[in-house]
């Protein structure tokens, strides 16, 4: 059976380090990191995520701000708020919770965030820095950054000679994940819905990352024996065995059968999920260190 990669434990390590480094920053007479989270509307899932982000920021010793705006907030009003947060020296990280209401252009809002405060890593400047290997000053999207940390715990930082297959080509996970693996000297293939003979390609991977949003799509016989499998997917499916109307969470990987072949695997839940908020804290801390003229901490 595969080693189970405990994302919850690694995330706790990251948050612990962030707390310590925040305290050290304050001892040096520098302002504590500031994170502003903006939520528009009343999407229940978004509210849960935002509450968790704000709670963790406070736990880390950050200056934590939350702007909860009504669903009818205009694009102009949101852009005005972003401009104010960009200009506020007490704020190092700005996070706009997606999705936004249909009348607001999410792309325009994300690109309005100052790149040095874009702790989600979605601004074109940060995308370009990651793509060209400028990792010292780039902010990397939190989910791939967290996934990379989990891979490093199993495989080390130098992945020379290893083949990686990333299934999924989104701007939020697939593409940045491929760039991170490339920077660590992996030979990388990005696969997607139009890829021919995906199972055969997946079997070439020493590191297999699944980020497609399709429940249990990656089967056990798609996995090379001993491979490291990172399951980014989180899907809710019916679970009649638990009772009428009940559901359960599964990833993009058929866990039970894949765990028999893999060398290491992330569970869902408890794998990549907890890493996302931990890396948001790490990015905000890094922004504060850079703003203070200090060397960016690594995790």
SSE topology:
Layout: E1 3-4, H1 7-27, E2 34-40, H2 44-59, E3 63-69, H3 75-87, E4 93-96, H4 106-112, H5 124-131, H6 142-155, E5 163-167, H7 174-183, E6 187-191, H8 198-202, E7 207-210, E8 228-231, E9 235-238, E10 247-250, H9 255-261, E11 264-265, H10 273-291
Parallel strand pairs: 1-11, 2-3, 2-4, 5-6, 5-7, 7-8, 8-11
Antiparallel strand pairs: 9-10
Helix pairs in contact: 1-10, 2-10, 6-7, 6-10
* Overall number of domains: 2
Mean pLDDT over the full residue set: 96
Class per helix and strand makeup: alpha/beta
Number of strands: 11
Tell me the CATH topology of the largest domain.
Rossmann fold
Radius of gyration: 19 Å
Distance between the termini: 28 Å
Which strand order does the major sheet show? Answer: 1-11-8-7-5-6
Major sheet: size, sense and barrel closure?
6 strands, parallel
**What fraction strand?**
15-25%
CATH superfamily of the largest domain, by name, is: NAD(P)-binding Rossmann-like Domain
> SSE order, as H and E?
EHEHEHEHHHEHEHEEEEHEH
- CATH class membership of the largest domain: Alpha Beta
| Unreliably modeled segments | none
Shape-level CATH architecture of the largest domain: 3-Layer(aba) Sandwich
């Amino acid at each position: 059976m595969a080693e189970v990669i405990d994302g919850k434990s690694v995330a706790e390590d990251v948050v612990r380090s962030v707390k310590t480094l925040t305290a050290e920053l304050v001892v040096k007479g520098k302002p504590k990191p500031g994170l502003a989270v903006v939520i528009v509307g009343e999407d229940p899932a978004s509210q849960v995520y935002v509450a968790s982000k704000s709670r963790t920021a406070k736990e880390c010793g950050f200056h934590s701000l939350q702007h909860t705006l009504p669903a009818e907030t205009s694009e102009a009003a949101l852009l005005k708020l972003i401009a104010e947060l960009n200009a506020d020296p007490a704020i190092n990280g700005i996070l706009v919770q997606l999705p936004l209401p249909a009348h607001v252009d999410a792309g325009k809002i994300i690109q309005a965030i100052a790149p040095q405060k874009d702790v989600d890593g979605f601004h074109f400047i940060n995308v370009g820095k990651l793509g060209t290997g400028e990792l010292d000053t780039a902010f990397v999207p939190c989910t791939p950054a967290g996934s990379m940390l989990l891979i490093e715990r199993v495989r080390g930082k130098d992945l020379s000679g290893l083949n990686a297959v990333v299934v999924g080509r989104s701007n939020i996970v697939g593409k940045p994940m491929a760039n991170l693996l490339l920077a660590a000297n992996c030979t990388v293939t990005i696969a997607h819905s139009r890829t021919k003979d995906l199972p055969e390609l997946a079997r070439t991977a020493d590191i297999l990352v699944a980020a497609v949003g399709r429940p249990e799509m990656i089967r056990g016989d798609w996995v090379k024996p001993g491979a490291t499998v990172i399951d980014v997917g989180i899907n809710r499916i019916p679970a009649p065995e638990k009772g009428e109307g009940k559901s359960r969470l599964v990833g993009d990987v058929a866990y039970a059968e894949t765990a028999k072949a893999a060398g290491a695997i992330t569970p869902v839940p408890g794998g990549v999920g907890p890493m996302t908020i931990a890396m948001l804290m790490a990015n905000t801390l890094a922004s504060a260190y850079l703003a203070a003229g200090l060397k960016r901490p690594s995790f």
